[in-house]
Amino acid sequence: MLLAAIPTFTIVLLVITAVVVAITIALYFVGKKAETRKAEQDEAAAKVSQTVSMLVIDKKKMKITDAGLPDEMISQMPWYAKRSKMPIVKAKVGPKVMSFICDYEVFDLVPVKREVKAQVSGLYITGVKGLHGAKLEKPVEKKGIRGWFERKAKEVNK
């Protein structure tokens, strides 16, 4: 009797609202869990990181499968990470040319064709400093609507 008095449109809106609220709550808890996992991984990487002097040859955002990283590392990556583009830095460390995965925040600071001191944890670059106390230039911020959206996204994430 009660359902007959409520219009169909209202029932549909209530169901959609309930589904959206449930999805929002689920994403909140999944995000919290991922955030704590990321903090633990960053802490573990900081413990084993070391400072390495390297000559940066090239930097690009490319797929992991095309980056020239070891096969063991590629096989351990989840399927969705293999398809996404990641910041890759090719650098000469000693006599060897190696490919590194770079942190997204550090990637813009890495200068090409210059020698830097980098904080490296395995094949992951977590920090960069200029050699002999030289300061690294921050990239010029993009103008226009895309640059505005990127600046707003960074402000929200801070």
Low-pLDDT ranges: none
User: How would a textbook summarize the main sheet?
Assistant: 5 strands, mixed, barrel
Helix content: 40-55%
At CATH level 2, the architecture of the largest domain is Beta Barrel
Any idea of the CATH topology of the largest domain?
OB fold (Dihydrolipoamide Acetyltransferase, E2P)
Distance between the termini: 52 Å
Number of strands: 5
The CATH class name of the largest domain reads Mainly Beta
Number of discrete helical segments:
6
How are strands sequenced across the largest beta sheet? 1-2-3-5-4
Quick description:
The chain is of the alpha+beta class. Helices cover 46% and strands 28% of the residues.
Describe this structure in words.
- The protein has six helices and five strands; from the N terminus they run ααβααββαββα.
- The model has no long low-confidence stretch (mean pLDDT 88).
- The longest helix is centred in the N-terminal third of the chain and has 41 residues.
- With 158 residues, it is of the alpha+beta class.
What is the secondary structure topology, with strand pairs?
Layout: H1 2-5, H2 8-48, E1 50-63, H3 71-76, H4 79-83, E2 85-93, E3 96-102, H5 104-107, E4 115-121, E5 124-130, H6 145-157
Parallel strand pairs: 3-5
Antiparallel strand pairs: 1-2, 1-4, 2-3, 4-5
